[in-house]
Each structure stands twice: as structure tokens, then as C-alpha cells.
């Protein structure tokens, strides 16, 4: 199995930026990369709300974003380092949530990292 660990969450003011990192460890498959053939994603869950998809990126580079973050967030991956990133710019209070890294293909979740946007 794969283990996912997120980091980079913090308290920021509206308009600020954060970069989240997801580091994967465990079986890397015969490809030599944990992310090879895997679809990776970032989800978030705000207090009292359901977990929602923020951004998704396939192994081939196909990317999808939630409408609410399009143009502000950027998902990227470094398969050689088994890492997925989420660059978040122009943060808004409604972005406040726990952000989770997700390996959709292998149904794995990270523990989450808290992002709070408040003045």
C-alpha cells in the first residue's frame, strides 16, 4: 500500500498564498514511480461540509480543477520524488478547510493539513 502525508497548511490572510506538498511512501510498482499510472488529487473539507474535489491530475498530465479554485490553484507532480503539490494563490476565506492528498487509483488518503484564511 501507499502512505500519503501532506504538509504546508497554515494561517494566512485573504489574498495570501500557500503551497501544499504531498509525499508518498510505500510500494512504487515496476515503473519505479509510485505515481505511475495513478490519478492523484487534492480534496478539501470545510467544517460541517462534505469533502470535495479541488484538483485532479492523471499520470499523463490531464488536469481538472473545481470551478471555485480555477485560475488560483495549480496542481503539479514530481513522480521521481513521489510528490504532489498544490500551489494556492489569492486565497479566500471560503478556501478554509482541511486539505487532503488522494491517490484515486489506489484509494489512499493522506491525514490532511489545515488551511485557514482569515483576517
The low-pLDDT segments are none
- Biggest sheet layout: 7 strands, mixed
Distance between the termini: 40 Å
N-to-C SSE series? EEEEEEEEEEE
In angstroms, what is the radius of gyration?
Answer: 14 Å
- What portion of the residues fall into strands of 2 or more residues? over 45%
What would the principal axes of the Cα set say about the shape? globular
Classification by helices and strands: mainly beta
Task: Provide structural commentary.
The chain is globular. With 119 residues, it is mainly beta. Strands 2, 4, 5, 6, 9, 10 and 11 form a 7-stranded mixed sheet that branches. Strands 1-3-8-7 form a 4-stranded antiparallel sheet, with no helix packed on it. It has strands spanning 2-7, 11-12, 18-26, 40-45, 52-57, 63-65, 73-78, 83-88, 97-103, 108-109, 113-117. The model has no long low-confidence stretch (mean pLDDT 91). Strand 5 and strand 6 form a beta hairpin. It is built from no helices and 11 strands.
Main features:
119 residues, mainly beta, 7-stranded mixed sheet, 0% helix
Short characterization:
The protein has strands at 2-7, 11-12, 18-26, 40-45, 52-57, 63-65, 73-78, 83-88, 97-103, 108-109, 113-117. With 119 residues, the protein is mainly β.
Q: Which secondary structure elements does this structure contain, and how are they paired or packed?
A:
Blueprint: E1 2-7, E2 11-12, E3 18-26, E4 40-45, E5 52-57, E6 63-65, E7 73-78, E8 83-88, E9 97-103, E10 108-109, E11 113-117
Parallel strand pairs: 2-11
Antiparallel strand pairs: 1-3, 3-8, 4-5, 4-9, 5-6, 7-8, 9-10, 9-11
Amino acid at each position: 500500500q501507499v502512505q500519503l502525508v501532506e504538509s504546508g497548511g497554515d494561517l494566512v490572510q485573504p489574498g495570501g498564498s500557500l503551497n501544499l506538498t504531498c509525499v508518498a511512501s510505500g510500494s512504487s510498482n515496476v515503473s519505479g514511480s509510485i505515481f505511475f499510472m495513478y490519478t492523484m488529487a487534492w480534496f478539501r473539507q470545510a467544517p460541517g461540509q462534505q469533502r470535495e474535489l479541488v484538483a485532479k491530475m492523471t499520470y499523463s498530465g490531464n488536469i481538472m480543477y473545481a470551478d471555485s479554485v480555477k485560475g488560483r490553484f495549480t496542481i503539479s507532480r514530481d513522480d521521481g520524488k513521489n510528490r504532489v503539490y498544490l500551489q494556492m494563490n489569492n486565497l479566500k476565506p471560503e478556501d478554509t478547510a482541511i486539505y487532503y492528498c488522494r491517490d484515486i487509483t489506489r484509494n489512499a488518503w493522506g491525514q490532511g493539513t489545515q488551511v485557514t484564511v482569515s483576517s
